[in-house]
């Protein structure tokens, strides 16, 4: 009986040890397979995105109400903004309205209607119109002025840095951009250009957000081709142009 019990205990111990070895080997193989497979986050990190962005389009536009308007999250507000811009462009560009004339006509019409309504209310026994008291708040104006001041100072700093001859690539990019902008300005006036940009902001981002998985591969190919052509241009032309004195001091 004692020998039988010892053999039974040994067989149980062998089964337990085999079970533990099997579990450890399966867990190690599964961990190895998990290590071999790239994680989903790393795969997403390697996906090329236009302009090198790592955040969604909504966050690129600030993630607030302005992003909701440009990406048509609130369709009524987006359609209203685009409609108002279209009406303004039609009035000033197609109907040749002047700003001062339009403002005066709107004020005449609104004041005349309110005046007549206020005086007619006493005869028809109805309450006069409640004209709200309009005041410009102080804090938003100061915040806007500070933000505008910061952006203007940053633009001046960038222009100073470009003019000092430190970065030839940035200098050529700015010159090319200004040249293209001057050509576009010769085709249309400032109001039409502003309206075109406004319409593009209300159409291109929402279309890109919808089809970004199809657009980004083409953008990646185009970007690699541009980099290749720029490398050739840099080797043959830009590298032979002498740099400014600040660039030489940095090298020393």
From TrEMBL:
<feature type="domain" description="Reticulon">
    <location>
        <begin position="66"/>
        <end position="252"/>
    </location>
</feature>
<keyword id="KW-0472">Membrane</keyword>
<feature type="transmembrane region" description="Helical">
    <location>
        <begin position="171"/>
        <end position="201"/>
    </location>
</feature>
<keyword id="KW-1133">Transmembrane helix</keyword>
<feature type="transmembrane region" description="Helical">
    <location>
        <begin position="77"/>
        <end position="92"/>
    </location>
</feature>
<dbReference type="GO" id="GO:0005789">
    <property type="term" value="C:endoplasmic reticulum membrane"/>
</dbReference>
<dbReference type="GO" id="GO:0009617">
    <property type="term" value="P:response to bacterium"/>
</dbReference>
<feature type="transmembrane region" description="Helical">
    <location>
        <begin position="98"/>
        <end position="117"/>
    </location>
</feature>
<dbReference type="InterPro" id="IPR045064">
    <property type="entry name" value="Reticulon-like"/>
</dbReference>
<keyword id="KW-0256">Endoplasmic reticulum</keyword>
<dbReference type="Pfam" id="PF02453">
    <property type="entry name" value="Reticulon"/>
</dbReference>
<feature type="region of interest" description="Disordered">
    <location>
        <begin position="18"/>
        <end position="41"/>
    </location>
</feature>
<protein>
    <recommendedName>
        <fullName>Reticulon-like protein</fullName>
    </recommendedName>
</protein>
<keyword id="KW-0812">Transmembrane</keyword>
<dbReference type="InterPro" id="IPR003388">
    <property type="entry name" value="Reticulon"/>
</dbReference>
